[in-house]
Amino acid sequence: MKKISLWIMIMVCCMMSLTPLSAKEAFDIEKANIEMVVHENGSIDITETYDLKFLQRRHGFYRNIPTVYDMDWNVDGVKEKKSYYFPISHIECDGPYKVEKNYDGISIRLGDEDEEVIGKQSYRLSYRVQTKDLDLDGIQMLYWNLIGSFDTTIKDFTYRITMPKVFDSENIYVSTGRYGQNNNKLSVKVDGNIISGHNTKMLFSQEQATIMVNLPKDYFTFTKDKNYDTYVIGITLIILLGSLILFIRFGKDDEVIVTVEFDPPKDLDSAGVGYVIDHIVDDRDAVSLILKWANNGNILIHDENEGFQLEKRKELGIEANDYERTLFSAIFSKDYIVKEDDLKTEKMSKAMNETKIQIQNHFKKENQVYMKASLVLQCVMLFIVVLPQAIASFAGAYAKYDAISLSLPFMIPSLILLITIIPWILFIRKRYAMKRSTFFILMIVLLICNGICIGAGVILQMQLETSWYVILLTTLVTLGLLVIMVFMDKRSKKGNAWLGQILGLKEFIESCEKDRIEALAKDDPYAFFKVLPYAYVLGISDVWVKKFENIGLPNPGWYVGNQGDVFMSMLWWNHFHYCMRDISKAVCYIPPAKSGSGGGSFSSGGFGGGGFSGGGFGGGSGGSW
């Protein structure tokens, strides 16, 4: 008896395991009706009606309907993967509802968020789907998931499809079941151009119903996709033309006349040369003033084992600039002799920052290095550079998704490109004060970063199926605009003349021959020290020192160290440049900071032969909220 009871229990468990899982949703679908009107242009007007019985209190009912489909086709034994976008429009519902869009589909939420319902409720929604050519060598069909994936049972389901014209009723296939299954719980009736039917058995949780009607190749005349290529091309060409006009009018530099000469510009000190060459005030520009003061007899530099000392010998002359007086006064504010540690103060740090600002302010109005209009336009060009790709990406996405909110993110690569091109402004201005090897390495790095961003934009446009000629045009114009932006800053007449003189001095330092140097040292024994501040700000002090490596130099009178009366430039500089480094660190010291106190995802499958349940377009899912 016990054995019989045991066998009965085992059989009951097995039978229960074969029974579909109970629904997890808060409602049962008492009745579902799908009405479809198919038009010759491929659009389908769909009306869905659901009679639900809520078992728990909920606000209402929602439907997730896909718009993006990744399909696996099997055409004559050849597998093909295709992606489609079928936009949804003309959404209408009975009662309050809310629509949310994402990249894969839409979510329609029916009901009132301030009210809850229970028991029997009815919901009706309608919408239009614009299908498109399947791109399968003319193959056309209606392949539709009549009922999507619901986590509940469907007791009664009916459907009615009105086709636009005659078709072969022998080419109709239906299937039910979970995704990928090919069961048959659906009846089919054809009356003229109307296909109708109902379920023959209850549909359990996650079971779908799909119909496929194979149609003649010319059955549909699909509407053309939205295309904004003409607008993109027109706007891109206008941007390019306008930028060229602005560049010619405001950005094209006059010819720089470089005269190779020993003397620096008469109205520029070393700090001014450092600013004019790259339009940036570096620490070394301000620190170079110490060498200038030493040459002018204002200070002595004591270079000792315990560290350096600066000694004031006399005040600055009346010809000194404001920024010189600010820095000089800060250094010798307490005593006429200062040590390294005396300069590492917050007061000195503030004075250094003020000095830099005053150097910048000195080159305004009549001393401006660049034309103000060109600098403003260069900043504007930063945004103009990324416009062609940004517009093309947005237009391609908008043509596909028909929603601004979904199209804007496709402009992100262009925004990243904007960030990566900003360094070009600083980089290109420093080209004269930078070693050629360093310049080319940094240029390659920047080009790679820009190329990655532009390439990402191209890939996105290809995914959006943007025309190849639009991609090519926007890419080339973007590169052209980048060049225009880089060289948009135009120097003033005075700035251009200064640049020519500075480049001439730089070329002299780098290329002058030994006999010329020897003659120079003979004519002016202190020439080496006079040019040193300028070589220092131009970053070629090592080159200048090497020119004098075998030439004896007199003690400049402002350096107190371990050298004798005769200097050897290389030996002295190998020691003194460490002293200058320590001076720079002290003067530019930065004190430590003080411590302080519903939507859903959508998917679809493919088909082989007569299709399978859930494998068509449409469908989606639904539930309560």
TrEMBL record:
Keywords: Membrane, Signal, Transmembrane, Transmembrane helix. The chain crosses the membrane at residues 230-248, 375-398, 404-427, 439-462, 468-488. Residues 261-548 form the Predicted membrane protein YciQ-like C-terminal domain. It comes from the Bacteria. Residues 1-23 form the signal peptide. Residues 28-194 form the DUF2207 domain. This is DUF2207 domain-containing protein.
